[in-house]
Amino acid sequence: MFKQYINGRLVDGQGPAIQVENPANGETVAAIQGATAAQAEEALQAAQVAFQTWSWASLDERVGWLRKYTQALLEEKEYIVDLLSQETGKPYAEACYDFDWGISSLTFFAEEIRRITGTTFADYGARRGEFYHLVDQRPLGVVVGHLAWNYPLGNAALKIGPTIASGCCCVLKPSSQTPLATLYLGEIMHKIGLPAGVVNIIAGPSGELGQALNASPIPKMITLIGSTDTGRQVMAQGATSVKTYSLELGGNAPCIVMEDGDVDTAVKLAVTSQVSNSGQTCIGYNRIYVHASRYQEFCDKAVELLKQVTLGAGRDPGETVMGPLINKRERDRVLGLIEDAKANGAKVLYGGDIPAGFEQGAYLSPTLVADVTEDMRISREEIFGPVVSVRPYTDFEDVLQKANDTQAGLTSYLFGHDSRAIYRAYEVLQFGELYVNGFSTGPMLPHTGMRESGVGCDASQWGLKEYFSLKRLTVKP
Question: Residue 445: in which H helix or E strand, if any?
Answer without folding.
Answer: none
